[in-house]
Write a structure and sequence with these properties.
The chain is built from 15 helices and 19 strands. It has 449 residues and is α+β, with helices and mostly antiparallel strands. Helix 8 crosses helix 11. The radius of gyration is 22 Å and the shape is globular. The two termini are 31 Å apart. 50% of the residues are buried.
Length: 449
């Protein structure tokens, strides 16, 4: 094996990191500090041909393969114990054609790198707000963000995918070429069929300046805020983007917050946010006219342990569920977690459920219950709160889960892909018959926490 590692080092432009190397522990660190997986090796590629040589080595030695872009999986699914992690981070190029409204994104690019490249042309890809998430990984699970109600998921804006399959062959995948694989990769693609090296996207015109930001109220008025938010979203046009959440905080400082903007017209957005502020006297706002990029690149705390559960809500928020949000937060260990609603609707829900592998076209919200802790482990008291809250809310969820919010404690893969599971397994059997890539269609469940 050592001779083969030496041979692999000579063949690639990138770097191999083994458990004996000084950089190994740093390479194992992910956004979720509670994940402690130990791959047999990292291959940090610098050019796409490095991946072919890495796959040859993995096949010869029977190593399962996972791919790391941004490293934001809540369960750390980009790392596989005793397997090979192909680290794509150095392949982070972004090329924008303003005239064609297209962007070509390499597999290691992060959201903020794509936003920066497109923003200079007053264009944008509808992606999430956590700036260090990998764009390609987010796309393969669907990809939900502030522009999704207007322009759909990231996956809905894919035009072509370049993939290296398990046999080491480059493939061009789109509606005409390998159409069934193209269907699968848009919503159920993460580490299932091959290594994605780049994706071509359709991007969209956005205003130079928009109005928006965050409004926060004391937790005592949370029920009224959630009810009004529900009613606002029920009749909203697609160009209103707004999240509702109870952020983690010391109990003495607890708030309920809305964050977003009205894309169509900045003056109308200012009027709308003034109306929202009249719902109840806020204790904090940061509203204003600013470039889209300033609102899109929200700040997320780094270097925290995370324990996360979630569910999809098919209908509107009921008063009973809103009461559970608030009661559950009051039971949370002090400064130990929060609850968030990601809205869907609009363009996301107008796509037919069979058009892509993303199964959640009839859902209105994703509800996340997230435990957070400063350190490298998650205390049991916070995990217990997350689990208990999830169990209490489960009757209001539709039984499905979002691949990008992966949870190894759920029954896989049925909960992620629903009625698409059999079709996806056929695609898997065709393009990765030896299960080189250990994605959620075939991975054995194991506990990382």
């Amino acid at each position: 094996m050592l001779a083969d590692i030496t041979k692999l080092k000579r063949r690639i432009k990138g770097k191999i990191v083994l458990p004996t190397h000084q950089q190994y522990q740093q390479s194992c660190q992910l956004f979720n500090r509670a994940v402690h997986q130990t791959p047999a090796m990292f291959v940090k590629v610098r050019q796409a041909s490095d991946i072919r040589h890495a796959l040859e080595y993995a096949r010869k030695h029977g190593l399962p393969v996972n791919v790391r872009g941004g490293g934001h999986s809540a369960c750390g699914s980009c790392l596989v114990t005793d397997g090979m992690t192909i680290d794509m981070r150095e392949l982070n190029g972004v090329a924008v054609s303003a005239q064609k409204k297209q962007a070509r994104v390499s597999a290691g690019a992060l959201l903020h790198e794509v936003d920066k490249a497109t923003h200079g042309h007053n264009l944008a890809l509808p992606q999430g707000t956590c700036r260090t998430v990998g764009v390609v990984g987010s796309t393969l699970g669907g990809g939900i963000g502030l522009l999704s109600r207007q322009y759909g998921l990231i996956a809905d804006n894919v035009e072509r995918i370049t993939m290296l399959n398990a046999a080491g062959e480059f493939m061009q995948i789109d509606h005409q070429q390998h159409a069934e694989l193209f269907w699968a990769l848009r919503g159920a693609g993460a580490n299932q069929y091959g290594v994605i090296t780049q994706i071509d996207y359709r991007i969209h015109r956005i205003p130079t300046i928009i109005y928006g930001g965050t409004i926060s109220w004391p937790i005592k008025v949370a029920k009224d805020i959630f009810q009004r938010y529900r009613d606002l979203l029920a009749d909203a046009s697609d160009d209103l983007s707004m999240y509702a959440f109870i952020p983690h905080s010391p109990r003495s400082d607890a708030v309920v917050s809305l964050f977003g903007f009205y894309l169509a017209d900045s003056k109308e957005s200012e009027r709308l946010f003034n109306e929202i502020q009249d719902w109840s006297p806020p204790i904090h706002t940061d509203l204003g006219f600013r470039p889209y990029l300033d609102l899109q690149s929200a700040h997320y705390e780094e270097e925290l342990a995370v324990y996360w559960k979630h569910g999809f809500i098919s209908g509107q928020l009921t008063d009973e569920l809103i009461d559970i949000f608030i009661e559950s937060f009051h039971r949370c260990p002090d400064n130990g977690g929060g609850i968030m609603l990601d809205p869907l609707g609009g363009a996301v829900n107008r796509v037919d459920k069979s058009a892509t592998a993303f199964i959640h076209r009839d859902s209105e919200y994703i509800c996340s219950i997230t435990g957070l802790y400063s350190g490298r482990f998650m205390p049991e008291r916070i995990k217990d709160w997350v689990r208990q809250t999830y169990q209490t809310m489960s009757p209001f969820f539709n039984g499905l889960a979002y691949q990008n919010y992966e949870d190894f404690e759920l029954e896989e893969p049925q909960c992620y892909y629903g009625e698409h599971v059999d079709r996806l397994r056929q695609v898997k059997a065709k393009y990765d018959p030896d299960n080189v890539f250990c994605g959620s269609l075939t991975r054995k469940k194991d506990s990382l926490f």
